[in-house]
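call fold(seq) -> tokens
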Amino acid sequence: MIYIGIDDTDMLDTRGTGHLARQIAAQLAADYPLLGVTRHQLSSDPRVPCTHKNSSAVIHLGAPAEAVQPIMKQVEAFMRNDFVPGSDPGLCVTAVVPKAITKFGQKAKKTFVLQTEARALAAAHDLPLIGLGGTEDGVIGALAAVGLATGGNDGRYIIIGRVRDLVGLQPVEALLDAGVTAVQTSDGTPVQDGMVLTDKVRPARRNGRPVVIVQWQGDHWLPLKLD
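ret:
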């Protein structure tokens, strides 16, 4: 598995980081198995400069560790070509994510952290982490997102299987067939039948799996959008 974390790639009037992640994922999928793209919410501390909600994205690829460098070069070229003036992009590509990086991600989710801390931590663990313009503060979110993604219990999938193709009310089986591992309520009770409103459904990442968490609404299940 290779994780590709990107952050701070947009401005208020441009495409978002999630959109860019999906574009990069589509390109990489021509050569590697795409296992998903996840969105991770970071701190809302007012000291954090951000355009929307300070979220970052991670592309999950089924690729060997030796592919890290060529993938990083490919993604870097894509991001430089798609650079948005005024943005401060960061990129992290790695197959090995120490627990210290997950702890950093959890910290960045709760509080303000400095770019120097992210760079020092990446250097200490020999993780490829680079800035691609502006202040390069995006390295903070890129590293944090990789840590949160590998922790397995954070964020939500913006791409998984064929889930984005689903529209309207669909049976639970349709979500499972599209790539979701499970449908359940917030207390963990499995949902095995009934209709689910699938418009813009974004499965949560739980135990490293895509899980749709729902609540009953009238005559169908309504998916919850969790961070």
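The first strand starts at residue 2 and ends at 7.
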